[in-house]
Every structure is written in structure tokens, then in C-alpha cells.
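Review form for a predicted model. The reviewer records the input and the model, then writes brief findings.
Reviewer: anonymous (R2)
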Amino acid sequence: MSAENSSKQAGVVIIGAGLAGWHVIDAIRGKDKDIPITLITADNGDRYHKPMLTMAISQKKSAADLVRAKGIDAATAAGVTLLANTNVSDIDAATRQLQLISALRSDPVYTNYATINYDKLVLAMGAHPIFPKSLPQDLVWHVNHIERFGQLQEQLATGSQRIAIIGAGMVGTEIAEDLLKAGHKITLIDLNNAPLSQMLPAQATARITKAIQSQGIDFLGGCQVSGVTRNDDGTLLVSYDLLASVSDNDNEEQQHEPLIVDHVIASTGLVVDDKLPAAAGIEFNPRTGIVVDAPTLRTNTANIYAIGDCMSIDGVACRYVAPLRAQAATIADDILGHEHGGYEHKPPMIRLKNKAISVMVTGVPRAEGNWQVKTDSADELIMDLLNDNNEVSATVTIKAPVMPKS
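Model under review:
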């Protein structure tokens, strides 16, 4: 396939072969078997379920075990042109043309795919991990992608190791339990004084802290990592400062020993790359990503849509798996010119995938606000977040795990 041929039948071009990108392909192919679709991805395009990455090590599942279909096989089955190991370096929205370069260092440029045209473009490029300056990327892991997950798993195969996880949000807390169950010694570090503190009130997060500590996970709250360096013996030294604002001790200079571990994993949040949206003139929020029209998932630039982790609706990032099918169905209908009722965004139920405690959240939670207790017992805590009109905008339900009968 040459650039000349691709311009004659440009069709739909999708950037990103994660869950979002493949859901769009499934949705379009469910309604139209013939429209040309090109999928561009910086990796090999393999289909896998990303949420499984935070549970797979303790289950002894390799990266290969998580792959549901090879990219080339899935593309062939769907009648899709797959441009694997390829990056998009520029979008010219006026001419509907993309500039492509190879993602393989050994292959500087795919000359046959220097440019490609599109009729409709879907941005499903996801978000990538935030690495603060204190976390050097050459010394710190992330598990946001199956390739890095596989590399980390290889490193952990030699036996029990000491691991520091920076960031105690949903993902960091899930990874901590997974690695603990796999036999490793875990230290979970966060700026806040409890896990999930940016999402839930203190009364709820206190129970989560107690549960994960009861498993044997060391939790260091109110700590800001200031550096990670490699020691002569190959171990890593994690330096951190105690934050007086969340410390139980008013003495800012209280002493602590640096942490020595074998591996450090960053779970410090996600950010969307603004390069392509900027090139296309797409409205973009540095905090939440690409801005879309909620009913159609169109961006403000004609013929370009966005889906999944890279986009936001009404100022809120959409970084959950559950709504992807509905989002993809809306995009498919809109691209194909079918009448549709529009995408109605509903915050999905959020579940913390930890055995130590059951945490379920509905609505749009935030730590601050008017949280009201509905149930408070040793086995269960239920709290509602009320808005200015005294309407429930979020609910958290925390339950102690059901112990198996002996």
C-alpha cells in the first residue's frame, strides 16, 4: 500500500491500538464491513485487557498470556490495514493528512507510509505515565503498557524482592497487593496520608489504609520522593521528605532512613500528549486532555473524534474501561452517517481490585465536599457526597472482606 493509494480510499484512520482503538474498529465493522480502516500504533497492535496488568503477576500470567489476539491476526480478521511500530508526527487538518515515522530505532522511516490521508480520524492514543523529575525513567518502572509489564515480570522472576511503589491511587494500591501476593516486600508511598485520598474522604481512606497494612504492605503517607539513585551493589536508594502538612508530627525535621529497594514503580498519574492535538488545532486541556462534544465525541476540528483516556467530557477525564463500548458505538454511527441518540456520559462504577477490602464508588467522587455517613459499622461504611442542592453526586461503599468458612 502506498501513500498514493491510501489517499484514493482514505476512509477511517485510528491512532492507537489500545482497548479504545479496537473498540472503535469492532463498532464500525459491526455496522459496515467495507469502509476502509487504517490502524496506526507505536507498538505491534496486540489486543489485551489493560486492567489485567495490575493483577497478573500474582496469577503468574505472562505478557503473552494476556494477549487475546496478535495485532496482525486481529487486523486481518477485521479487514483493517495495520501500520504497526509507527508514530504519527503531525496532523494537517486542512488537507486531512498525517505524517508518519517508524517507531523502530533500527528503521528510521517507512518511506512507503511517509504520509497518509483520512476522511475521518479517531484519536485513541491514550495517556502516558507522569514521571516527576525526582523519578528518573531509566531507574523507575511503570505498568501502563504490556511491553513494560513483561520486562518487569522478567526482573521479578528470580524470587522475592523489595519494591517501592510511588503513588497510592487506584492503580498503585492494586499493584501493591498483586506484588505482595506474588511474594515480594512492598512499600507504598504517597504524598497524602492514606491511599485514594484524592478521591475519598478521610473516614473512608482510613479503612483502606488499615486493610492494606494488615496484609503486610508498608505504607508511607505524607512523603514526597526527592530522588532515586542506584547504589554500587545494584540496589536503589529512594530518598524522600516528610510533609509537615500531613504528618502526625509537627517537627518537619523528624529523622527517617532512606529506603533501599530492588525496584521502584511509578503510579503517579497520567497525562495526555498535546503535540498532535495542537498540530490539528484541537481544543485541549493540559490536565484532562482532548475536549470533545459529549453527544458525538467530535473534537472542535472537523472530521476528528477522540475516545478513551486521551479525551475529556465537561472538564472530566474519561479514564475508565466501562464506557468505551458506548463511546465507540457513538463514533461508529456518527462516522457512518447513521442516526443515533448521542452518547450519554454516565460515570461508571469504580471498583478497587483488592482482596483485603471491598471498595465500590459511583458518581464523581472527590475528597473534599459534604460527605454524609449512611452506614458505619465494623463490616461496612457507606457515605454519600452531597452537592450544593443536597443531591447525591457520589457514593462510596466499603466492606470488610468475607472470610472463607473453615
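Findings: Residues 271 and 341 are 31 Å apart (CA to CA).
Further findings: The first strand starts at residue 12 and ends at 15.
Recommendation: see findings above.
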